[in-house]
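User: What would this chain look like folded?
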Amino acid sequence: MTIEVKVPSLPESVADAEVVSWHKRAGDRIKRDESLLDLETDKVVLEVPAPVDGILTEIIEVEGATVTADQLLAKMEAAEINDEDSTAVAEVDTQSELDAIVTPSARKLIAEQGLNAGLIKGSGRDGRILKEDVQTYMQASKEVETVKPAATKLEVKTAVAEALPVSGERVEKRVPMTRLRARVAERLLSAQHNAAILTTFNEVNMQPIMDLRNKYQEKFEKLYGVRIGFMSFFVKAAIEALKRYPTVNASIDDNDIVYHGYFDIGVAVSSPRGLVVPVLRDADQMNLAEIEKAIGDFVERAKDNSISIEEMIGGTFTLSNGGVFGSLLSTPILNPPQSGILGMHKIQQRPVVEGEQIVARPMMYLALSYDHRIIDGKEAVQFLVALKDAIEDPARIIIGV
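Assistant: Here's the prediction, encoded as structure tokens.
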């Protein structure tokens, strides 16, 4: 029985997706729920699993194709697949079926170029693959910058970097943006055009937090199964400051200011496709261990692009830690429609005055970018000072003062 593999339902905010990589080829025997291909939207990469056990008989949409919800991607022939089954027979049968629909001239060109006939869509009668179809497929492959037969767009950037010479010739290589990179660029440009972004700075002494971590790290890890980091303290400190200055937790909707009675904190994490911002829902109701576990989970899943769209939608305030990459100071850009974002930076030993003495302390610069249309400068400064006070005196986080 022929089974159609279609594009899964996409969220309302996502119009289409792009086929970035096929994990299987026509003729492959596949178990149900095995990953067939990856679709990239402007937010996440979606895996499309096999709906049944069977054989992939035809690939309709090749890598680089733009597709919409419920669009046909491929066809499978349902069949019982056992580990010790006759793999070779199934593959030979499928290959014979492919050979029967490929014209001699097309077959010759496919052999010369080392192509997979199962990836080529035929335009001839009854779906026969013509020489022109092979040429069209080859041209399309060049246009989507396929670096090597097995390469995907997620690998293009690395492949190009490796291909460029260290010195000598003035070589250029044009590579299309990934959908995520293009979407990020669009949102950042929009944020700068549509908001009155201003940044205020301060610095915080990280010694109290470091001392607290050193004192309780072993017990904390034994009790909760996770190490305590800095980000959970900053999330909690930000929430306390947001409670005092609710406008920083608000957003603009046309001519209205929307004050959010909840605290959904976005945490920027790095992924192979660029920066993503998953959200800690109701972060005010989470303890330090729950925050650390959630952030650790986001970091791990960002590596294989498995953070869902739903986990990145919304958010009332964002934290971004450029310090993990060595950034000493920056001016973060707002994550619309949010009105505030905190930039954290590298911790450095710097001389500070305490009483009448100059001592070395582990200091971090903080940067709060905010929408000046609804947040006054005084309020922004007071918010940042409140956050700084909470970090330098962690007991404030516990007792809420």
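The two ends are 67 Å apart (CA to CA). If you want, I can go into more detail on any region.
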